[in-house]
Amino acid sequence: xxxALRVVVLACLLTVAGALSAGSxxxxxxGRCLTGNTGPRCHFWQxxxxxxxxxxxxxxxxxxIKGEKQIRFIGIQAMEQxxxxxxxxxxxxxxxxxxxxxxxxxxxxxxxxxxxRLAAQHPSTDHKGRLLRSVAVNIGGRWQDLGQILLSEGHxxxxxLSSETxxxxxxxxxxxxxxxxxxxxxxxxxxxxxxxxxxxxxxxVSSDPLSVDTAHINGEFFKVQNxxxxxxxxxxxxxxxxxxxxxxxxxxGTVLPPxxxxxxxxxxxxNSGNVFYWGxxxxxxxxxxxxxxxxxxxxxFDPQGDLRAYMLYPCVVACSSPDQxxxxxxxxxxxxxxxxxxxxxxxxxxxxxxxxxxxxxxxPFETNSVIQPxxxxxxYLAGNPRDDxxxxxxxxxxxxxxxxxxxxxxxxxxDYITLGxxxxxxxxx
Length: 429
Prior knowledge:
With 429 residues, the chain is α+β, with helices and mostly antiparallel strands.
C-alpha cells in the first residue's frame, strides 16, 4: 500500500511539474535586460515568426498569447519599404538599403529556425499599435540581438528611445563602428555614383540650444557645409532627416557655393537664401548626458538614397579632433560674465562648427570665427548679439548664468568631443 501511494504521489508530482514546465514555456518572465547582474530589468517572451514585414518590423505568435502580433524593433530604424511580400521577396520594393535590411533580418531569423526571444522594459506599443520589443534569435545555441547585428552591419540607423533605454549604449556604439567601416548605409556610393560625388561635405546638428528646447525649437538645427575650395554643389531634392521618420526635402534650385553653409532650423520661419525652416512643433533632437544614454543623429541623403554626410552623437568611437588642446578656455564667472578662447597652438583654429557650452545650453560659433595663434575670442554671456565684432561676441542671455560657487565652460564639438574646458569652485571639467 505504501509503495502504491508513493507511485501515485510521484505521478502527481510529475504531472504538476509538467504543467509548470508547459506554463513557463508560454508565460512572460522577468530578468535583466542584458547579460550580467546589473542594469535595468525587462519582461521576456518566447515567440515564433509569423510574417516578415520590413527591416525593423515583423509579425509573430507569442507563446501563451492568442493571435498574431506586430513587433516593432526597439532602437533601430531601417530605410522605408513600400511594397511588402512575406512569401515572395522578389516582389518587395523600397528605398535603397530597405530591401537589404529586410533580407538580412529574414536570413538571421531563419538561421534560428524562426524561434525568437522578445524583451522590453515596458510592455508598451508604438503609435501604430505595434509592440515595441528587442528581438533576439538563437543561433548556435546563443541568443543574438537582431537589432545590434543590423546596426553593426550598417543596415539601419540608431533610433534611441527615452522609454526603452537598456540598449542605447551598445546600439550607439554599433552604429558608430559601422559608420567608421563605411559599410552598407555608411558607404556613400552604395546606391551608385551620385551627383557631385567629389565634393566633400560636413554636417553637424545642434541638440541642446539655449534654455528649454521646446521654447527654442529654431535653436536646434542642421548645418551642411561645402568643404570644397572650388566646386559648388546642387542640393535640390536631397533630403535631411534625424533618426526618426521626419524628413526635409531641400527645395529645387538650391546651390551651395564653395565654403558656404546650408542651415535648416527645426521650427518655423521664412526661408531665405540657403536658410530653411523645418516647421516642426517639437524639437527634433534628443539631449544626451543622463542615465538613459540618449543621443541622435543628423543625416543628409542624395536623391538616389546614398548617405553623403552625417553626425552621430554623443561620440563614442574614434572621438578625436585635430583642435583638441589647441584652444585654452578661460572662464570669468564674475560680473560681467564671459569666457575667453585663446589659440595656444601653432596653427589657425576655426571655431565655426564648435560651440561654447555651459550647463544646459550651448552657444554655436558662427562664420568668421577663425583665431590665429595667440589670438583670443571673447564671448560675453549677456549683451546684444547685434554688437558682435571680429573677436568679441555677445550671447544675449538674460541674467547671470555662471554661479560663483562653481561651474564650468567647455569648448566642444556638436557630437560632444571636448576641445578645452575651464572650471571654478565646486565645478569640474
